[in-house]
Design a protein that fits this description.
alpha/beta; Rossmann fold; 8 helices; 7 strands; globular
């Protein structure tokens, strides 16, 4: 049977997105069009059979796509979420549909104790923790530096980088040699937009943290890497960006469209698997051709 390859320029529509507004943090079912998490396309091959993973922000977007891919690769998956109950339950349904065990954890990751309790809950449910994906993040656009409230600045840093320290520090007590930590950073770490200054600064911190943590974690046999996406069609976009930005979202890539979450999930699978056994301290870009400077 001949393998069919899809033209990446036309795999997903590149037409302008329709007008749409959502309240933060956004919900999958309200997106137009709906995002693709690989529901109809991702096929597993046992790369993570018997493993246990904890994915923060696994209710939607990249997190849901990674959760689905991990489950189809044979892993049990726990996800955290803030308050998007319907989205979290849909991710849980997708995981269980694969024949894997699932756990949903509603929490505020700015709370160190909540982060530690999430790790404990995962281990209590599955008996082990092999993969930690630090993915959940807060994003908001601003007109100027002066328009950024102190409370937003504080919340962004506590959510986007301090929580990565909390989760990683505690999880390393339990992840056995051969396990991995994968962080979601962003092209904003290297090519920041002024309207996303707090978010971009935290993503740069995540990239730095990934490299420094890798040096320490490998002494325990745990690899640490990151994925740096460009524009991705997730609920954060229509719920945090101005309408004119949403309408043309992703047109500044070589594909003239944003990525779908399903297009990033294989990177997270690779970095969690034994196929990446000699890879640590690396940051993999998935930017649609945009340069990381």
């Amino acid at each position: 049977m001949r393998t069919i390859f899809h033209d990446p320029r036309t795999k997903y529509p590149t037409s302008l997105f329709p007008k749409q507004e959502q309240e933060m943090p956004g919900f999958e079912k309200k997106m137009q069009p709906l995002a693709d998490h690989g529901e109809a396309t991702y096929k597993g091959s046992g790369k993570l059979a018997g493993a246990s993973a904890l994915i923060t922000g696994g209710d939607s977007g990249i997190g849901r796509a990674v959760a689905l891919a991990y489950a189809r690769e044979g892993a049990n998956v726990a996800i955290t979420y803030l308050d998007e109950e319907d989205d979290a339950q849909e991710t849980k349904r997708l995981i269980k549909e694969c024949g894997q065990d699932a756990l949903t954890i509603r929490m505020d990751q700015t709370d160190r104790q909540a982060c530690e309790k999430a790790v404990d809950a995962c281990i209590e449910k599955f008996g082990r923790l092999d993969i930690l994906v630090n993915n959940a993040a807060f994003q908001k656009t601003y007109d100027s530096l002066e328009s950024i409230p102190d409370e937003d600045l504080d919340y962004t840093f506590r959510t986007n980088i301090e929580a990565f320290f909390y989760f990683s520090r505690y999880a390393l007590k339990f992840i056995a040699p051969g396990g991995s930590i994968i962080n979601t950073t962003s092209i904003q770490a290297y090519s920041p937009s002024s309207a996303l200054a707090p978010y971009a600064a935290t993503k740069a911190a995540i990239a730095n943290f990934t490299v420094s943590l890798a040096e320490e974690a490998i002494k325990r046999g745990v690899r640490v890497n990151a994925v740096a996406p460009g524009p991705v069609w997730t609920p954060l976009i229509p719920s945090t960006m101005p309408q004119e930005k949403v309408r043309n979202f992703g047109e500044n890539t070589l594909f003239e469209r944003p990525a779908q979450p399903a297009e990033l999930a294989p990177l997270y699978v690779f970095l969690a698997s034994d196929e990446a056994s000699y890879i640590t301290g690396e940051i993999y870009g998935a930017t649609g051709g945009r340069k990381q400077v």
